[in-house]
Amino acid sequence: MSAPPQDLCREALQLLEKALGKPPPELSAEVDVAEQKIAQLRDELIDRLRAAPDQALRAALDNVNAALSLVVGVEYPVGGVQRDMLKQARTALEAAQQHCPTGAAP
Q1: At the N or C end, where does the chain have fewer CB atoms within 10 A?
Q2: Does 47 reside within a domain?
Q3: Are 86 and 74 within 8 A, CB to CB?
Q4: Dihedral sign from CA coordinates of 47, 90, 63, 67
Q5: With pLDDT > 70 as the criterion, what percentage of the chain qualifies?
Q6: CA angle in degrees (0–180, nearest 5) for 53-60-62
Q7: pTM of the complete model
Q8: Does 103 map to a domain?
Q9: Which 3 state secondary structure label does DSSP give 21?
Q10: Is the residue at 56 inside a domain?
Q11: How confident is the model at residue 40 (pLDDT cuts 50, 70, 90)?
Q12: What pLDDT is stored for residue 62 in this prediction?
């Protein structure tokens, strides 16, 4: 059973904060871990939406998808590491967190 979305979101935010504090040579590994956690959160939200469509879950998923796109953009940058994209991803996850359920899936 997967962790509640609220927990996954909190973990993803912590990982982004940790990545933002790292120097560029160490950033890639931290961003990889954050990306995996955000993808796990996305997958859990999709499963819940399929089981019971809900406006709040849809809003959370939209924000999580935005965060994931930003993190992938950091991982494969055209012009070097872009910390602003990590900060934007953090903001999107903070918005998603407001709509993430706290309990286990029904």
Answers
A1: N
A2: yes
A3: yes
A4: negative
A5: 90
A6: 95
A7: 0.85
A8: no
A9: coil
A10: yes
A11: very high
A12: 96
- Which residues span the domain enclosing 53? 5-97
CB 82 within 8 A of CB 73: yes
Q: Angle at CA 59, nearest 5°, toward 49 and 89?
A: 115
pLDDT tens digits, one per residue of 50-71: 999 999 999 999 999 999 999 9
Q: Distance between CA 24 and CA 81 in Å, rounded?
A: 7
Number of domains in the chain: 1
Place of tokens 């809003």: 59
CB-based contacts of 47, cutoff 8 Å, min separation 6 = 2, 105
Structural tokens at position 62: 């939209």
User: How far is residue 58's CA from residue 99's CA, in Å, rounded to a whole number?
Assistant: 9
Place of tokens 């609220």: 6
Distance CA 104, CA 70 (A): 27
